[in-house]
Give the backbone structure.
Amino acid sequence: MKIPKIITALFAISFLFACNSDDPNETPNDNYSDIYNLPSTPFNYSNPNFPETFTPYVFGFNNTPTDNPITNDGVTLGRVLFYDKNMSNNNTKSCASCHFQEFGFSDNVSKSDGFEGGSTFRNSMGFANAGFYSAENFFWDHRAATLEEQVLMPIQDSVEMGMNLEGLVEKFSELDYYNPLFENAFGSTNVTSDRISKALSQFVRSIYSYNTKYDKGIEITNDIFEDFPNFTAAENLGKDIFNGKLTPGAIASCVTCHLPNSIPLHFDQPIPDNVNQVIFSGAEPDNIGLDDNINVPDNGVGAFLGIESFYGHFKTPSLRNIEITGPYMHDGRFATLEEVVEHYSTGVLPHPYLSAHMKNGDGSPRHLDFTPEESAGLVAFLKTLTDYELIEDEKYSDPFIN
Ligand code: HEC
Ligand code: HEC
């Protein structure tokens, strides 16, 4: 269609005026549309349209505290904070500098660069459905008990963002574009670290994933053990291996550890058929035989707790969006999913505190010895957990104009 020239010209002129912030006749701008691009009515975060397979059974572990429910205005504030580089000491790093939407809120390097260029100790984790992670297990070493506690830690980390909470509150109190956001979310413009923590965790918690090929499959069958009609043969083979269908007697199928959070950890009990793996992550940390001794720079949960029998134990990470959150493991040692699967197939090392689920009856490390077809199937299955809608959804994207 041809747009009449006069309309185009008028549009261009009005656009020029709108951009000219030096115009003395300009009315004071209190929606800060020159700073960030937010919808006049906030996006819907608080009332997601979950599929029926996200059953209340699975929601048993909803970690939302009663004093911090998700509100549309709270998440909107959290979203702006998440993408604001002012969050770091020298205004160079936002949360999003290490947690990219396009990479499932992870990044694509083994270790990330902090505000002064220093390297993080561990691999940046992606997140989706973090509101359903069980309590007491945030971070690779489980050192944060709640999301509210967790989100303030990178800000104060000497490598990551290098701030202290007092300085943070002072700095953000002076950024007037936060006034309407705090007002809407909490009823006044007052900036406190508690409000920052609440808004940031609301944003993280609001990142729901339920539009993967896997989710579509379970919506059709409502049974994780049935072949999904929307899957390829390779993906269904991978699903069977993952769920232990091919090895009913074994206790070391993937689902044993990367299982729905709400399923009790009794391995003799069958997994209910109609359950959706909302997070593909267990509550327990584990040692999967990545190293064969305890003299390593990072002993994970064991080092944090000061309990040697937990040495080499790390958070069992969520597998949602796993295709795009590599490199893998706490130290980012594996570049590809093929390498991860090869680890479980042939690479598990003996370790004094190796998980019981990774051992044979005689205590030796268990190698699942996949055929090439099985390995390829497992990788294909893992790739069905990518949520392409989520990683392009504007409501989780960078709202800043510059
Ligand atoms: C310099 C990079 C960097 C920055 C900046 C950063 N993170 Fe992280 N984030 C990481 C790394 C690395 C980990 C894993 C650290 C660990 O487990 O020891 C992590 C872990 C997390 C987790 C834990 C997820 C889980 O499954 O337990 C969340 C949530 C998170 N970050 C949110 C944030 C928020 C919110 C901000 C901004 C306030 C932020 N991050 C800033 C690198 C970063
Ligand atoms: C004993 C429990 C356990 C079993 C069984 C298990 N995993 Fe894991 N998985 C973990 C833990 C713990 C980690 C993190 C280890 C680390 O970084 O030190 C992990 C990490 C991963 C990762 C990398 C995640 C990331 O974000 O870096 C993938 C992918 C994965 N597992 C897939 C599988 C598959 C596929 C199977 C079955 C062949 C399987 N797991 C079996 C506990 C387990």
Observations:
- The radius of gyration is 23 Å.
- The pocket of heme C (ligand 1) is lined by residues 82, 87, 93, 95, 97-99, 112, 114, 120-122, 124-125, 127, 130, 138-141, 150-151, 154-155, 160-161, 200, 204 (CB under 6 Å).
- Residues 1-28, 261-267 have pLDDT under 50 and may be disordered.
